[in-house]
Amino acid sequence: MWMFTAVPILSNDRDWRRRSPRARPRTKLWSRIEASEMMPVVLLSDLHVDHSQNMSFVRELCSQTRNEAIIVAGDISHNFNLVEETLKLLSSSYRRVFFVAGNHELWVQGSQRGAGTAPSSIAKLEELSSICETYGVFDRPHRLDSVLVVPILSWYDLSLEVSASADLFEGFERWPWTDFRKCDWPSELEDEYPCLGNRYPSGVASSFEAKNDPMLEEAVEDMKEAETTSVLTYSHFLPGTFALPDWLKPESDVFDPAWFNHPAPQLSAKFSRVAGSSSIENQLRRLTPYADEHLHCFGHSHRPKDFYRKGIRYVHHPLGKPKERKMFLSPVHPLTKTVFDQRGQQVSAPTCLRYWESMMKGSDPLIECK
Ligand SMILES: [Fe+2]
Ligand SMILES: [Fe+2]
Description:
Pfam families: Metallophos. By secondary structure, the protein is α/β, with parallel strands linked by helices. It has helices at about 15-20, 50-60, 80-95, 120-135, 180, 205-225, 265-270, 280-285, 320-325, 355-360, and strands spanning about 35, 40-45, 65-70, 95-100, 140-145, 145-150, 190, 200, 230-235, 295-300, 305-310, 310-315, 335-340. Helix content is about 25%, strand content about 15%. The strands form three sheets. Strands 1-5-6-9-10-12-11 form a seven-stranded mixed beta sheet, with helices on one face. Helix 6 (about 205-225) packs parallel to helix 8. It is globular. The site of one fe (ii) ion (FE2) has 7 residues, from loops.
């Protein structure tokens, strides 16, 4: 196993982060990406701490010092104060915290900061980045010894829409997808579309893709220099149709209508229009050729997944909402999921394609709008 040796790690790296988050030491001289020693890495997405039960879980999680890095793949809350409180709690407990925004973070209403409404979703994204800076939370690449961690900021477009029969999409213009009401995008990133508000944010995914470019280039340069690298990318949104809750054959690019053989195929079909973007997969695959192994973690659907596809392991490990846990849709026992151990080795787990079926031996669609 390759170990970098350029500059010794500070004896207590938690202290310098608290003292001066804006002036972190460089531990590796030949890359612009900061590095630190290896530590176990755990995942969690979709914390939705506006549910008091979820906030209690986070408080409990952070009530002790954790010798781990945690990846938080979006959807902490729409409420800025709660996002800040959660990131503060996590960074006081975990050795490293990695975060990327989800759709809930970019709602402009109910922000409860300043005037209570953010000026726009883009402005809120920038403010989130400054919150990350304040608490030493990473929203940029960072190397944990042989594991390079890279965030992928993302949104959805229509590229994951399943080729299901048209009647399943009927009534999409009335479907109460809250983002359509609560996000506020520049007009050039939206197009007329038969959805709530008649505007679909078609250009947001590609605009975020452009924001990721410098980080991905930096990551490639970093990986070219390293002798051994595992890469862990993370996005909030789904990277491909193969990650949709109902998709049963990750290796297949073709949708099988039989996978919608449950009581609410309309919800599954509609969700595919707000699930993610194939541009995420294109971006993360730019790093794969330079990696010995690649793990991508995502959030958003609240339906756990763990599978391999074309050489990459994909994991979705949400906290989800209390109601979803009760219905065996999200992990019943809220826990983080460990994906790398202290030595930088991947921690394997059973394949998971439809958690609810393995738990209930039944079938279940998406049950509610998020
Ligand atoms: Fe969520
Ligand atoms: Fe989400």
